[in-house]
C-alpha cells in the first residue's frame, strides 16, 4: 500500500476509478496532469450485474478526463486476485448527479 499523499504515490500501482457515469475502471496508473486527467495501462472495465457475474471488458491503454472522475482508489492486488468475479453480484452504480 502507498504511504504518500495524492496521485503521485499511486503511479505504477493498480487503481480503481469510479466515473461520474457509474463505470468502474481498473488499471495501472501511468500518469496524470493538473486537471486530474489520468492515463491507465492494462486497464479493464468491471461491469456489475445482479443476474450474472462481473464482466471484465479489456480496454488496454486508456485515458480518463479529470472532469469525469468521481473517485480514485488504491486497489489491493493480493485481495483482488482472490476474488471470484464470476460469483460476485451487485447492482450497477448509478451516475453521479451534481
Summarize this structure as a short list of keywords or feature phrases.
98 residues, mainly beta, 5% helix, globular, Sm, spliceosome
Structural class: mainly beta
* Sheet with the most strands, sense and barrel status: 5 strands, antiparallel
Overall pLDDT: 92
Regions with little confidence, pLDDT below 50 for 5+ residues: none
Query: Which strands sit side by side, in order, in the main sheet?
Result: 4-3-2-1-5
Number of strand elements:
5
User: What best-fitting shape do the alpha-carbon axes yield?
Assistant: globular
Strand content: 35-45%
| Cα separation of the termini | 31 Å
The rounded Rg comes to: 14 Å
Helix content: under 10%
- Reading the helices and strands in chain order gives EEEEEH
Number of helical segments with 4 or more residues: 1
Keywords: mRNA processing, mRNA splicing, Nucleus, Ribonucleoprotein, RNA-binding, Spliceosome
GO biological process, one term: mRNA splicing, via spliceosome
Subunit structure: LSm subunits form a heteromer with a doughnut shape.
Organism: Quercus rubra (Northern red oak)
What does this structure look like?
5% of the residues lie in helices and 42% in strands. It contains one helix and five strands, in the order βββββα. The model has no long low-confidence stretch (mean pLDDT 92).
What is the gist of this entry?
The chain is mainly β.
List the helices and strands and how they pair.
Blueprint: E1 14-19, E2 24-32, E3 38-47, E4 55-64, E5 69-74, H1 77-81
Antiparallel strand pairs: 1-2, 1-5, 2-3, 3-4
